[in-house]
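tmp note - NADH-quinone oxidoreductase subunit F
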Amino acid sequence: MDLKLLDVEPSEAERVVVDLFTGMGRDQLLPALHAVNDRVGWISQGALNHICRVLHVPPAEAYGVASFYSLFSLSERPAKVVHVCVDLACQVNGAKSLCDRLTSELGPAGARSGWLRSPCLGVCEKAPAALAFQAGEVAKEQLLAPTTAGEVIAVAAAGPSHVDGGRAEVPQAGAAGLRLLKRVGVVDPESLDDYRAAGGYAALRTALHLGPSGVIREVTDAKLVGRGGAAFPTGRKWDATARQPVRPHYLVCNADESEPGTFKDRVLMEGDPFAVIESMTIAAFAAGCSRGYLYLRGEYPRALHLLRNAIARARERNFLGDNIMGHEGFSFDIEIRRGAGAYICGEETAIFNSIEGFRGEPRSKPPFPVESGLFGKPTVVNNVETLVNVPVILTEGCEAYTRVGTSGSTGPKLFCLSGNVSRPGVYEVPFGTTLGELLDLAGGVPPGRELRAVLLGGAAGGFVRPDELDLPLTLEDARAAGTTLGSGVVLVLDDTADLGAFLLRIAAFFRDESCGQCVPCRIGTVRQEEAMARLVGRRPLTTSAEDLQLLKEVGQVMRDSSICGLGQTAWNAIESALYRLGYAEEAAS
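out:
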């Protein structure tokens, strides 16, 4: 390829880290960008130019990728920076006052002041949250959750001291009857021996005995469906991939849970990382995959550390690699790919583009991933929660599994409780538990307050009123009620929450996260935010009736004609607030 490179050279530090990728292909573009960002804190023209030279990527395309992700900077900034979350759960737990104090003491958010406003960091149970980063020969990251302005100011000056903000909040830890969370908070997540002593790798042994078709049959009979929001039958997806004659087959674990209010996959990866690795290995065996990619959101430093350890220990003990567990001919290994702050990369085909070294934009379907996915080969994509259900099915049996939950929604389900709730965290309950029962588990709203609304499914979900708490939490009941369970978000708002500001943040989130590929979403999310800003009284330029009509029309166009789920669902929560909660009348009055 005859590349037209820029006439600028990298620094010595940049050259050293980029040269490590010599001889590799374009699919290493994202890791190379991470390497430079980790070393110097930002990506200069010289560094980008050298990456293009080493990986043979046109400069314009490399720039398009580097500028796509919020965790990267293409303009110079300090080695130390703190990303402060301003998204939904943090917003209702004091993020605005925290940011106001930071602005007062450090200056407006930006590179010069050492702090940046950030979308959701995935630690919603510990809101408000921040992520401190310091570049260097060994980059450091520290989650501050929950945090205060004083702590952020101190860390912005001194830099991060360790990798995480403590263990995840699992209020049910150690309780009897748990399946998905049974080891979280109980077993050492860094010990393979502890994992095996608690039943680990028994499911893989069962899978090898059953054979690929037997595993697929068990998963299909268990009626396991995807837990990321789409609810597609898992067994059908695996079977369709396994039947493809084209080789190789790939497995992608979608661990880029960027939906505001979602943190269940993080809890599983931090609390039970070997279960994630075992589950991926079983899925690979069933679908005939020789290689797996775990696409991990870039804001999860503790999960990254624990998963790297789990993969290394599994390789040492022949649970990954060639002839796994002595099973001749079954070879499989896993590579972690770090995301870099892009909500759209949670869409299954956008993940493919990101891994391959392109902008994380969704692809048109068909062809579907089971036919032509990663690198144009048949690919299975499942999220973390979906996968960790598989060992439960294989150890308990599909019949026992289907006795949990309902006939239409089988098995256990993880829900992420955050916002104005007494005991936030991840909760495991059987499908069919009512919303009221789930809120009772979490202690309800804080004493002296009243429930105003519950957001189900995150920014792409819908609101439920206080008089609807008898809603059974199943896929079919949520659908019948005109809402969705989505990825398991249950974000509670009490009577102190500013609903208008909350809705405006949802609109701003979709505007920021739209990849811009299709016109309905690229333009529609901007118009939606502008109309919401006027409705909540920030920029009164039109009448409420005109803005409500505009929101309806724009929302319907996005829903009908956007390429992917981001644009198709960008209007959902706002629509439900306007008409289910009655905010339209409130805004008009």
